Task: structure prediction
Amino acid sequence: MPRNTSTNPDIRAARNELGARLRDLRRAAGLTGQQLAASLSWNQPKVSKIENGRQTPTDDDVRSWCRATGDDRATDALLADLHTLQTRHREWRRVMRTGLAAEQTAMGRQEQDIRIFRGFQPTIVPGLLQTPEYARGIIERAGNGPASREEVDQVVAARMQRQNILYDTSKKFRLVLTEAALLNYVSPPTAMRGQIDRLINLAMLPNVRIGVIPFDRPYTVVPQHAFWVYDDHLVVVETVSAQLNLAQPQEIEQYTKVFEAMALDAVYEDKARNALARMGRQIADRE
Result:
């Protein structure tokens, strides 16, 4: 598992994007990198490093850059991007420091304050719905997963503990899965069939609504990756290297719209149960 933020591709991409936006401001102002540096009493390499994503600017750096390029209107949006980037750094460092089992526990604490969960998953069954056997298969095959059997046991146990929240009827869960998420060969067939049965049972809970998008249903929006929308204030995206917490209003609005589009593409109740039963039979044929 990577041990520093420089190996996180998502953080690196966010830093590059912020640098590109700052570079656009400089060019729009008709300034060279050397001229901007001189106006800010910086050395020129600092400008180059920020623009090319090799250095994260501070809040004061962003404010000074906007003033020097004559575009104070861009300050708030750029600071929001910077703070999102800083949050990603903190989240990544915390995962690396505490380990995956502790991260599951931390996620469970975070979920206690959430009332409406909206989750979309195109590749695997989400952790809140997994059986222990299926979870073990996922964790053992994760590219950044635990190295030892003991660590795997700890992560599985912590994930199962998190699932108690499903029985809290003050909370609502809306989950949409693609057929691929249910048929991808990520665990032994016996574990995958057990997972199908688990989903059928969970869908009967009064506060849990599970939708399935079969292969023969056209997508309104092409799915890009898994994500969660928590209430109306946070989007969570899990990547290979980190969990990203996105809190900018425009991001939350965009992900909510995508989720609602995916939800309309899905089938529910009897149609979902029939689809799940069919997939269970397909999985049984692998044994």
About this structure: Confidence is low (pLDDT under 50) at residues 1-7.
